[in-house]
Amino acid sequence: MTELLQFPAGFAWGAATAAYQIEGAVHEDGRGPSIWDTFAHAPGATLNGDTGDVACDHYHRWPQDIALMRELGLQAYRFSIAWPRILPGGRGQVNVAGLDFYDRLVDGLLAAGIDPYVTLYHWDLPQPLQEQGGWLNRDTSKAFADYAQVVAARLGDRVHHWITHNEPLVVAYFGHWMGFHPPGRHDPAAATQAAHHLLLSHGLALPALRAAGDSQTQVGITLVLQPVYPASSSEADLAVARREEIIWLKWFMDPLFKGAYPLEEMEAHGLPQPTIEAGDMERISQPTDFLGVNYYTRIIARGSTNSGDIEEQDEHTTMGWEVFPDGLRVLLERVQHDYAPKAVYITENGAAFQDTLREDGTVEDERRRRYLQQHFGAAHQAIQAGVPLRGYFVWSLLDNFEWTFGYSQRFGIVYTDYATQQRHIKKSGYFYRDVIARNGVPRG
Ligand code: GCO
User: Fold this and answer.
1) What would the 3-class secondary structure string for 251-309 be?
2) What's the pLDDT at 44?
3) Is beta strand 344-349 parallel, antiparallel or unpaired with respect to 389-395?
4) Structure pTM?
């Protein structure tokens, strides 16, 4: 018999999604437009012009989706709330029908014995706030805290895990510097300023979330982190590695956990200093209960084309990402050593591969199954090494709208047939069900 790597008692096994990627129903029950509606509808912005207008139609099919989660044995479910459903104008008038939707969802999850982990911002800023400057406007941070307060006042008696932001790096860097996410800017100074306001909004929301909860309430933030491996010990590779570490680790972790940006290093690597007001860094670095980590792959830093003692692994996902499970262990140990968060959750990990739905309704996604098994194994090693890892959320429950890649990338452990909206549990989903049932993973 293969050996089973046993996880600690109480470890939370779940799956994750995000509002714009699954809900659809973008014009229903008073929802206002978000920057992703606007962006996805702009010609050429997404592959095949795909949008989240219908997505997985989860807004209507949520009871069925909860039944699926039950079938998988999920203990926890991470989803995000669409700010424009709650406050269509971004601030001011509350849309009660929007709150009602999430209220029903939370009750449905609890009735199924599934613990809700709620993300407040998974990139869908209300469009009216963008028109007032979006994350470049300091007032947006205040609007976010007010929004957090409205949601927590309604759900805080039943939701005990709150995540303020999902991957603020992506909002700042992809949205304001690389330009391939909304609002499509190409300005490094805008990126660092937006990042600062995102972090500030996290700090402003924390007291509101705590005030609406009780002693069980846990509050955190989710970052996408990638460990950086210099391709060799050449000065050129090390220089690139230093810059990548600033972007993918220190830019957000230092202010959150040390109360200061690494400003000199940032400037030296082309990240301009943002405008910071008195008290901001104290707000940003208030203690949190956990850190959410999204891990997909590593970065190999190369200063020149021919450099490199390190070779990429052969296995890649359809996103083009190298499959590198040990990077998860290395990352978690590094984060613990340098920043010591009180607790850690993997809030996303998963892989896109080409899937085929067979006539009998099965999907033999052996590569995804193996990907998960290997990454669970790496997480287990990190726990052995002392990392306070408390739970694991597979990205994603369902195949869904993968941002600029539209529907071309399937990350689900459940297959979505977009033509019929039928769901089919994949082989990886059944594998996950067994892992959860045994609270253990067969050694890979
Ligand atoms: C992210 C987002 C998800 C993505 C996933 C796969 O982390 O980028 O949280 O929305 O779909 O990461 O790219």
Assistant:
1) HHHHHHHHCCCCHHHHHHCCCCCCCCCCCHHHHHCCCCCEEEEECCCCEEECCCCCCCC
2) 96
3) parallel
4) 0.98
**Which segments of the chain have a pLDDT < 70?**
1, 306-308
Cα-based torsion angle of the residue sequence 293, 297, 298, 300 in order, rounded to the nearest 10 degrees: -160
pLDDT at position 128 is 98
For residue 250 the two structure tokens come to 């220190």
The answer to whether residue 311 is catalytic is no
The alpha carbon of 403 and the centre of ligand 1 are apart by a number of angstroms equal to 8
Q: What residue owns the CA closest to ligand 1's atom 6?
A: 402
Look up tokens 């045994």; give the residue. Answer: 438
Does the beta carbon of 402 sit less than 6 angstroms from any atom of ligand 1?
A: yes
Radius of gyration of the chain, Cα coordinates, nearest whole angstrom: 21
Residue of 23, 167, 244, 245 marked active site = 167
Contact 18, 119 (CB under 8 A): yes
Residues across the chain? 444
- CA distance to 210, 227, 248, 345, 357, per residue, from 294 (Å): 24, 12, 12, 9, 28
Q: How many Cα atoms sit within 13 Å of 402 on the Cβ side?
A: 21
CB of residue 348 inside a 6 A radius of ligand 1: yes
Task: Point out the catalytic residue in the list 244, 245, 348, 402.
Answer: 348
pLDDT tens, position by position, 358-414 = 999 999 999 999 999 999 999 999 999 999 999 999 999 999 999 999 999 999 999
The Cα–Cα gap between 209 and 205 comes to: 6
